[in-house]
Fold this sequence. Notes:
Strand content: 15-25%
Amino acid sequence: MTDVHTGVLLPGRPFPMGATWDGQGANFALFSEHAEKVELCLFDPSGKRELARHILTGHSLSVWHGYLSGVQPGLLYGYRVYGPYNPHQGDRFNGHKLLVDPYAKALSGRLINHDANYAFDRTSPLQDLSFDTRDNAQYMPKSVLVDRRAKRDEDFQPHEPLHTPWSETIIYELHVGGATMQHPGIKEGLRGTFAGLSSDEMLRHLQELGITAVELLPVFPFADEPHLVEKGLTNYWGYSPYTFLAADPRYQSEQGTREFEAMVKRFHSAGIEVILDVVYNHTGEGGHLGPNLSLRGIDNRSYYRLDAHDPAVYINDSGCGNTLDLAHPRVMQMVMDSLRYWVEHGHVDGFRFDLATALSQTQEGYSQQSGFLSVVNQDPVLAGVKMIAEPWDLGPTGYQLGNFPARWSEWNDRYRNTVRAFWRGDDGVISELAHRISGSDDVFGPAKRKPQASINFITAHDGFTLDDLVKYNNKHNQNNLEDNRDGCGENHSWNCGVEGPSQVKKINALRHRQKCNLIGTLFLSQGVPMMLGGDELSNTQNGNNNAYCQNNPIGWLDWSESTPDNEDLKHFIQKMTLFRNLCPAFRREDFFDGHVIGDGPLKDITWWSPEGREMTDADWHNPHSHCLGYHLFDQSDDISAPEDHLMVLMNAGLDPVSFILPPAVYGKDWWRIVDTSYRMAEIPDTQINAGDSFRVEAHSLVLLKGHLMTCADDKT
């Protein structure tokens, strides 16, 4: 270690947490309730040479702190934390291990998986967990001192959030790196970065689709799990964070630490919100045989939920080896500071919380009155941002769909499974399908929540892509090197007759139609639609439904495949997003209740039988019915505007079904807007009369539009 002048250390203050530069020097503050000594370690600009260590002499409120004068932004640092090492008592301190500041605003370098990162000697019997004395600094990224004072650079001045209403929101979920790694229109040096993601090419693509929000898979720095590294694989999705206020350097180009903010600003200028998928339920330090990267070495007992009978073992409601203890006020503070930071400095518009139920546990189990939900719901900084819960974890009270507070929206896996099952041709599905496409009123209505509480999706990062959903009956995860044991076994998928790619035109035509059926149902449903990035490209993962470790072409979007089917699918999605925007009936802010409007017989929604009448109980309980129709009546707030009448007809059966359309009072002079039995450019431009018998082909979806005042100009 080189002895150089690195500033004068003063006691400093216990707040704010992390490293804060004031123009003259920096204050450092680190919480550790059970530590006995904390050293601040400074490194040269390469991060390879440790230049000096300073003992943080300030110690108040369980925070170790010090002020270092004369240092400048860009300083690289880390911590060594000393205390007892007794895993079976919950303590895992080891001063030989350099640790990342959990409040670091930026990192330099990559985390390198190495045995020296472990507090115990991995060469000894694992049950011993014997103390390891190797220094790991060369394998750890370094925390970076960042100037977060008011910025003078015009390009990075704060800008107003978009506040797109939930009823107008269309989400596109994507991976920052994988979205552009193979994009031919993006410079090679920008592929896989925030700058590449916000390039003109990507923004234009998203705008053409009608997207209003991107939901980014985790961007926090994350670890590659040891079992993946041993197999020559890496963590791709990023659900293993080890610090919470920095963006992972692997997504940054030469623009550096401000690149994330520049990306958000460009998205906002294009009218697109940015939602972050955040992971606060666990960290990348893993289970009891995992490394010391940050929190475990700072204060294991405070940050994690430990087994009361053997504190060497972690409560594992996350399924990832550990669970953060948000019942501890300092852990809660860290999570809330992170959320506020990304809103105030990153200017993001919302968050999707991975395994949100794990964050909301009390001693009695999940509760809407948990500390986390209570703190979030009253926080003024978070008041205007979108909050999305993944409403499950692996704990005993883990599945809580529909049970989050009123301001939250939730990923609705029941919607996904039901819509997939219907279009697969399953029996006995239509009753539940009606609930799903009308906003899951049975799930969210009892708590007086709105349809926008339901985030509807057919596909997401976890599971089959849309193309694979119609191409595979079974998962094919062999490339994950887990003998195809990983990933969900039941995907409610249908390969249309052949497993995998096919050269048979009839099968490929059916697959294309099924994709349109699934996407069409998504955009004609009440609630908030979410697409998986790349579905519009017919992106495939070759049947892999758990590509979390495939940072390669399997997991990346393929932009090279330009086929007539793909162009038609993209055109179809554009049509559906446009029509959804033009028709408030498909984005209501209240649930249907079947009430009669005016003098009748029109209702806000009428479920329609092929026989030309409202559906009866017998219709709903027919286990072999594979078709569903419904009429929507929408009264515009503009009294001079015509009343919209809309018919949706869905046939998932093997044979055509003829629907007798409603009489003229329900709308006459119908126009066919969508018919998935045709390509978009080939849909017949013909008028259909009220009361006519209308043939809905097998495996197809039809949307008809009309109003009581016949007007050809009204056709969308």
